[in-house]
Task: inverse folding
Protein backbone atom coordinates (compact mmCIF):
# COMPACT_ATOMS: atom_id res chain seq x y z
CA UNK A 1 0.00 0.00 0.00
CA UNK A 2 1.36 3.50 -0.89
CA UNK A 3 2.33 5.70 2.09
CA UNK A 4 1.93 9.46 2.73
CA UNK A 5 4.93 11.50 3.88
CA UNK A 6 3.95 10.98 7.53
CA UNK A 7 4.05 7.21 6.97
CA UNK A 8 0.27 6.71 7.00
CA UNK A 9 -1.19 4.61 4.17
CA UNK A 10 -2.75 6.59 1.29
CA UNK A 11 -6.45 5.73 1.12
CA UNK A 12 -7.51 4.48 -2.27
CA UNK A 13 -10.92 4.99 -3.88
CA UNK A 14 -11.81 2.74 -6.83
CA UNK A 15 -14.77 3.65 -9.03
CA UNK A 16 -15.99 0.76 -11.17
CA UNK A 17 -16.97 2.53 -14.36
CA UNK A 18 -17.74 -0.61 -16.38
CA UNK A 19 -20.74 0.08 -18.68
CA UNK A 20 -22.71 -2.93 -17.39
CA UNK A 21 -22.32 -1.73 -13.81
CA UNK A 22 -23.32 1.82 -14.74
CA UNK A 23 -26.35 0.64 -16.74
CA UNK A 24 -27.61 -1.58 -13.92
CA UNK A 25 -27.07 1.19 -11.36
CA UNK A 26 -29.26 3.53 -13.43
CA UNK A 27 -32.06 0.93 -13.42
CA UNK A 28 -31.72 0.64 -9.62
CA UNK A 29 -31.94 4.42 -9.21
CA UNK A 30 -35.29 4.61 -11.06
CA UNK A 31 -38.11 5.09 -8.55
CA UNK A 32 -40.41 2.82 -10.59
CA UNK A 33 -38.06 -0.21 -10.37
CA UNK A 34 -39.87 -2.76 -8.15
CA UNK A 35 -38.13 -4.68 -5.33
CA UNK A 36 -37.95 -7.94 -7.24
CA UNK A 37 -36.10 -6.30 -10.14
CA UNK A 38 -34.02 -4.17 -7.77
CA UNK A 39 -32.77 -7.29 -5.95
CA UNK A 40 -31.97 -9.00 -9.22
CA UNK A 41 -30.02 -5.97 -10.48
CA UNK A 42 -28.17 -5.65 -7.19
CA UNK A 43 -27.15 -9.31 -7.30
CA UNK A 44 -25.91 -8.94 -10.89
CA UNK A 45 -24.04 -5.75 -10.02
CA UNK A 46 -22.43 -7.18 -6.89
CA UNK A 47 -21.15 -10.09 -8.94
CA UNK A 48 -19.43 -7.64 -11.29
CA UNK A 49 -18.13 -5.51 -8.41
CA UNK A 50 -16.66 -8.62 -6.74
CA UNK A 51 -14.67 -9.30 -9.87
CA UNK A 52 -13.06 -5.86 -9.42
CA UNK A 53 -12.60 -5.85 -5.65
CA UNK A 54 -10.76 -9.19 -5.73
CA UNK A 55 -8.24 -8.03 -8.36
CA UNK A 56 -5.33 -7.85 -5.94
CA UNK A 57 -5.90 -11.06 -3.99
CA UNK A 58 -2.61 -12.92 -3.56
CA UNK A 59 -2.09 -15.98 -5.75
CA UNK A 60 0.16 -18.89 -4.93
CA UNK A 61 1.50 -21.54 -7.28
CA UNK A 62 0.45 -25.17 -7.08
CA UNK A 63 1.50 -28.23 -9.00
CA UNK A 64 -1.42 -29.90 -10.77
CA UNK A 65 -2.01 -32.77 -13.13
CA UNK A 66 -3.84 -31.92 -16.39
CA UNK A 67 -5.01 -34.75 -18.69
CA UNK A 68 -1.70 -34.26 -20.56
CA UNK A 69 1.01 -33.44 -18.04
CA UNK A 70 1.90 -31.97 -14.68
CA UNK A 71 2.28 -28.21 -14.55
CA UNK A 72 2.56 -25.30 -12.15
CA UNK A 73 -0.58 -23.15 -12.04
CA UNK A 74 -1.79 -20.11 -10.05
CA UNK A 75 -4.35 -20.61 -7.31
CA UNK A 76 -5.86 -18.34 -4.63
CA UNK A 77 -4.05 -18.94 -1.35
CA UNK A 78 -7.34 -18.64 0.50
CA UNK A 79 -10.75 -17.13 -0.18
CA UNK A 80 -11.43 -13.81 1.53
CA UNK A 81 -13.94 -13.56 4.34
CA UNK A 82 -17.04 -11.47 3.64
CA UNK A 83 -18.75 -9.32 6.28
CA UNK A 84 -22.22 -7.97 5.58
CA UNK A 85 -23.51 -4.88 7.38
CA UNK A 86 -27.15 -5.71 8.16
CA UNK A 87 -29.52 -5.39 6.63
CA UNK A 88 -28.78 -3.79 3.27
CA UNK A 89 -25.37 -5.50 2.98
CA UNK A 90 -27.25 -8.77 2.47
CA UNK A 91 -28.48 -7.42 -0.85
CA UNK A 92 -24.89 -7.65 -2.12
CA UNK A 93 -24.19 -11.02 -0.56
CA UNK A 94 -25.77 -13.36 -3.15
CA UNK A 95 -23.70 -11.94 -6.00
CA UNK A 96 -20.50 -11.93 -3.94
CA UNK A 97 -20.99 -15.57 -2.94
CA UNK A 98 -21.61 -16.64 -6.53
CA UNK A 99 -18.08 -15.49 -7.31
CA UNK A 100 -16.58 -16.62 -3.97
CA UNK A 101 -18.72 -19.69 -3.23
CA UNK A 102 -16.75 -21.03 -0.29
CA UNK A 103 -16.12 -17.71 1.43
CA UNK A 104 -17.08 -17.62 5.10
CA UNK A 105 -19.52 -14.87 6.05
CA UNK A 106 -19.81 -12.62 9.09
CA UNK A 107 -22.59 -10.19 9.97
CA UNK A 108 -22.68 -6.97 11.90
CA UNK A 109 -26.04 -5.38 12.70
CA UNK A 110 -26.04 -1.60 12.94
CA UNK A 111 -28.88 0.86 12.78
CA UNK A 112 -28.76 4.62 12.37
CA UNK A 113 -30.08 6.75 15.20
CA UNK A 114 -32.36 9.01 13.16
CA UNK A 115 -31.51 12.07 15.25
CA UNK A 116 -27.75 11.80 15.66
CA UNK A 117 -27.13 9.59 12.56
CA UNK A 118 -24.73 7.62 14.83
CA UNK A 119 -24.38 3.86 14.23
CA UNK A 120 -25.70 1.65 17.05
CA UNK A 121 -24.64 -2.03 17.07
CA UNK A 122 -27.30 -4.66 17.85
CA UNK A 123 -25.68 -7.86 16.48
CA UNK A 124 -22.23 -9.19 15.60
CA UNK A 125 -21.06 -12.66 14.56
CA UNK A 126 -17.81 -13.22 12.67
CA UNK A 127 -15.91 -16.30 11.51
CA UNK A 128 -12.15 -16.18 12.36
CA UNK A 129 -10.73 -13.04 10.69
CA UNK A 130 -7.16 -13.10 11.94
CA UNK A 131 -4.68 -12.96 9.05
CA UNK A 132 -7.45 -13.02 6.40
CA UNK A 133 -8.52 -10.54 3.72
CA UNK A 134 -11.97 -9.26 4.69
CA UNK A 135 -14.44 -7.65 2.28
CA UNK A 136 -17.02 -5.53 4.13
CA UNK A 137 -20.33 -4.99 2.31
CA UNK A 138 -22.87 -2.18 2.47
CA UNK A 139 -24.57 -0.81 -0.67
CA UNK A 140 -24.66 2.80 0.61
CA UNK A 141 -21.67 4.74 1.99
CA UNK A 142 -23.57 7.80 3.29
CA UNK A 143 -22.25 9.47 6.48
CA UNK A 144 -19.68 6.71 6.91
CA UNK A 145 -20.76 6.15 10.54
CA UNK A 146 -21.98 2.55 10.12
CA UNK A 147 -19.12 1.66 7.83
CA UNK A 148 -16.56 3.09 10.28
CA UNK A 149 -18.11 1.24 13.23
CA UNK A 150 -18.18 -2.03 11.25
CA UNK A 151 -14.56 -1.60 10.17
CA UNK A 152 -13.50 -1.01 13.76
CA UNK A 153 -15.21 -4.27 14.80
CA UNK A 154 -13.55 -6.16 11.94
CA UNK A 155 -10.08 -4.71 12.60
CA UNK A 156 -10.30 -5.70 16.27
CA UNK A 157 -9.96 -9.33 15.05
CA UNK A 158 -6.63 -8.59 13.35
CA UNK A 159 -7.29 -9.29 9.64
CA UNK A 160 -4.42 -9.05 7.12
CA UNK A 161 -6.32 -6.59 4.90
CA UNK A 162 -9.77 -4.99 4.81
CA UNK A 163 -11.64 -3.80 1.70
CA UNK A 164 -14.93 -1.89 1.69
CA UNK A 165 -17.40 -2.61 -1.12
CA UNK A 166 -20.45 -0.45 -1.78
CA UNK A 167 -22.70 0.48 -4.68
CA UNK A 168 -23.03 4.22 -4.10
CA UNK A 169 -20.96 6.63 -2.04
CA UNK A 170 -21.37 10.24 -0.90
CA UNK A 171 -18.28 12.48 -0.81
CA UNK A 172 -18.93 13.04 2.92
CA UNK A 173 -18.89 9.28 3.63
CA UNK A 174 -15.73 8.74 1.62
CA UNK A 175 -13.94 11.54 3.49
CA UNK A 176 -15.09 10.23 6.89
CA UNK A 177 -14.08 6.64 6.10
CA UNK A 178 -10.72 7.61 4.66
CA UNK A 179 -9.97 9.75 7.72
CA UNK A 180 -10.92 6.99 10.18
CA UNK A 181 -9.55 4.03 8.17
CA UNK A 182 -6.87 5.20 5.72
CA UNK A 183 -5.68 1.61 5.30
CA UNK A 184 -9.00 0.44 3.83
CA UNK A 185 -9.55 0.63 0.07
CA UNK A 186 -13.06 1.66 -1.00
CA UNK A 187 -14.73 0.17 -4.08
CA UNK A 188 -17.91 1.76 -5.44
CA UNK A 189 -19.89 1.98 -8.68
CA UNK A 190 -20.40 5.76 -8.31
CA UNK A 191 -19.82 8.81 -6.15
CA UNK A 192 -22.96 10.95 -5.94
CA UNK A 193 -23.29 14.70 -5.31
CA UNK A 194 -23.98 14.99 -1.58
CA UNK A 195 -25.96 13.95 1.47
CA UNK A 196 -29.26 15.64 2.22
CA UNK A 197 -30.21 16.98 5.66
CA UNK A 198 -31.39 13.56 6.87
CA UNK A 199 -28.31 11.68 5.66
CA UNK A 200 -29.62 10.28 2.36
CA UNK A 201 -27.42 10.18 -0.72
CA UNK A 202 -28.55 12.57 -3.50
CA UNK A 203 -29.48 11.77 -6.25
CA UNK A 204 -29.04 8.25 -4.81
CA UNK A 205 -31.62 5.49 -4.98
CA UNK A 206 -33.51 5.96 -1.70
CA UNK A 207 -33.23 3.62 1.26
CA UNK A 208 -31.39 0.56 -0.04
CA UNK A 209 -32.91 -1.77 2.59
CA UNK A 210 -36.42 -0.61 1.69
CA UNK A 211 -35.73 -0.95 -2.02
CA UNK A 212 -34.34 -4.48 -1.57
CA UNK A 213 -37.00 -5.81 0.79
CA UNK A 214 -40.07 -3.79 -0.20
CA UNK A 215 -40.45 -2.12 3.19
CA UNK A 216 -41.12 1.60 3.60
N1 LIG B 1 -28.72 4.51 3.43
C1 LIG B 1 -29.55 4.29 2.38
O1 LIG B 1 -30.12 3.21 2.25
N2 LIG B 1 -29.72 5.27 1.47
C2 LIG B 1 -29.12 6.45 1.55
O2 LIG B 1 -29.31 7.30 0.69
C3 LIG B 1 -28.26 6.67 2.66
C4 LIG B 1 -28.07 5.68 3.58
Result:
Amino acid sequence: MPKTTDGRPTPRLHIVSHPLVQHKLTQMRRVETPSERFRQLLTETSLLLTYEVTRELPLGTVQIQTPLTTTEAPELMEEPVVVSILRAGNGLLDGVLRVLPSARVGFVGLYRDHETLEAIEYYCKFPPLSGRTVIVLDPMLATGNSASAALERVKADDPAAVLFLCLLAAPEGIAALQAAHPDVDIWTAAVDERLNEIGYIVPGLGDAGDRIYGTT
About this structure: Residues 88, 140, 142, 199-201, 204, 207-209 surround uracil (CB under 6 Å). Helices lie at 19-29, 35-53, 90-99, 145-155, 171-180, 208-213.
